[in-house]
Amino acid sequence: MAIPSYTTDLTTIATGDLVNDAGTWDESTDAGWDDAGSMVDDQNLYYNNTECVSAQYTKTGVGTIMYVHTSAFTIPTDGAVLLHHLWAAPPALNPIATGGVRILVGTDFGNFDGWNASGSDFAPAPRGGWANYAINPAIGTPDYVVGTTTTIEMIGIGVAALAQARGNPNAVNAIRYGRCESIFTDGQAANYATFSGYAAIDDLTTNRWNLIEPVEGGYKFQGLMSLGTAGTLVDFRDSNSNITIRNTINVTSAFNAIEVNNASSNIEWTAIGITSLGTISKGTFNAVDNATILKTSCTFTDMDTFIYKSSTTLSTCIFRRCGLVTQDSATITSCTFDNPTGTVGLLVNSLNSVTKCTFNSDGTGHGVDLGTISADISLNWDNFESGYTDASSGNETIVVSVDSGITLTINVQSGASTPFVYNIGLGSVSVVSGQVTTLITVKDIVTGSILEGAMVYLVGSGGLLDGVEIFREVTDINGQVSDTRSVSADQLVTGRVRFNTAPNHYKTVPINETISSTNGLTLNAQMIKDI
Questions:
Q1: Under DSSP, is residue 139 helix (H, G, I), strand (E, B) or coil?
Q2: How sure is the predictor about 104, in pLDDT bands with cuts at 50, 70 and 90?
Q3: CATH number for the 10-178 domain, one of 3.30.1490, 2.60.120, 1.10.3470, 1.20.1110?
Q4: Which terminus has fewer CB within 10 Å in the chain: N or C?
Q5: With helix as H, strand as E and coil as C, how does 401-459 read?
Q6: Helix (H) / strand (E) containing 197
């Protein structure tokens, strides 16, 4: 395995060098957008590389710093142009509603469209300093139209503010475009791929991509985080990191996303927290390939959808105010789905692999969607719910569509809450509460080895199960037989274990036990050879 690699798909079209950038820097030729002062090649205010383009702002109005590239370029689907901008006088700035900071995209200095991006009342402008803005003109109707845009060749910034008597408060640095992809590949023992590893490369003065930017208390993320590629795996292991997803308001909804690629990739996250700051592109997680994914004690807040696969294991994770989580055979244990924002918290295809989880309602929707049931089946419910109500209210724990003539049996395990079920199909649902498990393991008393093929017979003795056969079957490859059923009170059971098939001859082991109505019965039957 190789050391981790941290790369991006971004193309740089300007570095903020007034003299040496291939294209042309200037202000707009439109009279309503030319109130900025003269531009200079500034080697003091720069954020990226060694210089930036800065300008005075000596008139109250709208001033621009614009860059026309040498040719037209195409922004990828769900991608963006990223532009570094500095406004050094926050109190003088207009609010966002009147375009304090505007991102401009167009053909030249007189033909462009503009979108409001920030202002004195909208982050990041109120605190001043360098900011990174993302723009994709494919999002639709702009806030401003000047002339006619035919091709995308110009990127710029517009500022609406009060005049500043001195200094150069307005500046632009690097301009880049692409899918805005942060690409993680490779990784090896003692040098796995990590968030901090990428952030260190991102934050180099020659880069400053602002894809995974180190900030106080963690990292700010935007764009597409690719964990592995189609041709190269990643071994990504990290813990105790906090990531915020930028409030990118001028992009498509799919702009912020995390994808796991390459089935040979390995992702291990422990106590990772990811919180979305915005509502336009809240961030998704998608296991594109069935890689090994292990998430333990992670918290995801205000994000969009999550898609997992069978090689995923989630343990003690929290999905708080997130969109739909798709199980697709993942193992999910002791996780919390708190106030999901969609109509369903978890789309399930294997309910028996979802255990000890908690589903909290926000008053509408469902905690779990079991999809369509087209054959008689029994499923175990070993989870907890809060805030869900009775059937047909639109706020049930479980929603399911059971086909006509089909019966779905939901066995509520001991200690679990009894779910409310809304069946939108024509079949029937039976919810059986008070389920406990009886597990008998058969071993050789001398060697301790398990005994596959031993016959176990167990029957109720008195009580509600009097005379009811619980087992008349042979042990499996683990030397076990198992039964789960509802037991309303402690139940006496009797029976025996026999193994008398050549060359195995064991003495019969009698059984006289009690199945607890709360804990079931776990029994080791020790057999001795009959010599």
A1: helix
A2: very high
A3: 2.60.120
A4: C
A5: EECCCCEEEEEEECCCCCCCEEECCCCEEEEEEEEEEEEEEEEECCCCCECCCCEEEEE
A6: helix 195-202
